[in-house]
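It would be a great kindness if you could assist me with a short task in structural biology. Thank you for your consideration; the sequence and its tokens are set out here.
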Amino acid sequence: MDNSFKEKGNAIAFRIFPSLPDKIRYSIVVILMLAGFYIQFYAYEILVGGVLIFLASLLVMFKGIDKRVYNKGYTRLEEWTKADKSNILDILNLYKNLKRWDVSSFEVTSLSGCFIFGLILVVAFIFIAMQYSYTIIGVDILMMFFPLYLSGMAKIDTKPQIVLKIENTRIIEEKLLSQYKEHSYDYYIQMAKVAKVEKPVPRDIKIKISPPSANEDFLGIYGQCSINVVSGKFYPYLYYVIVFRSGFKLRPRVAKDLGIKGNICVEITETKEAEVLIIRQKTTKTSGYHTNAKAIAALLDYTLELYKLRFG
């Protein structure tokens, strides 16, 4: 599986020259810092050197997480790629790492950040009040840390949809491992091209469930999650499909099962390549568009029992 989704360069959206490549940005920062230190210690120009250091600090001011890899500009790729569980965990870990910005000590909107920023100011002014060599240190501390702490909090406002889909799909895995150990399963990920991002990123996920025995026309049982967006909130809606090759004559085999029974809806869709039985939670105009863990487990029970009854 392509591991390109692990890291795609920096995940930080910078305030100054946001499109500037990282290598060039950090090279300029190092040059400005070294030049500033040189001017201060050898030309005895504290403020001139301090300005260069301040400019270097401005270049690394951030305004948040660059969420383009999750939220916009997708061009879906058709191929589904088999993924190891480690690949799935990589995506979740990436999100967790980004979320740690919420408690960063390097910005003034957290309690620890306020404390450290205040401590830095006190130390800086103590140095400035001392003799020349210490004054340089105090000025440099202010020039380096002041922009950093005022650059703002790098928040993740909403959980990326791919993370929601993974979390809901893993509920299936947990139930399979605890109650259906005779069934095997595999994860599949669909990648997507994103505007201004070089490599494709994960866009969708599904889990393929394989019963112990199967008809030669059987192509798999799949659990997949879609996301309903209502008033800016995400509501996962997980459903299952049982897929057979075209020509299997699925409809007469499951005629008695079609329709709505209780809270479960069973439908058929047919294409040139496949005949698909869909098992999903019943929906109305105003309800049913969110499947919680209990519903996901109940739908799995129903799907596997239906498969065993009609095709096992």
Remarks:
- Confidence is low (pLDDT under 50) at residues 1-10, 65-75, 153-157.
- The two ends are 32 Å apart (CA to CA).
- Residues 57 and 144 are 5 Å apart (CA to CA).
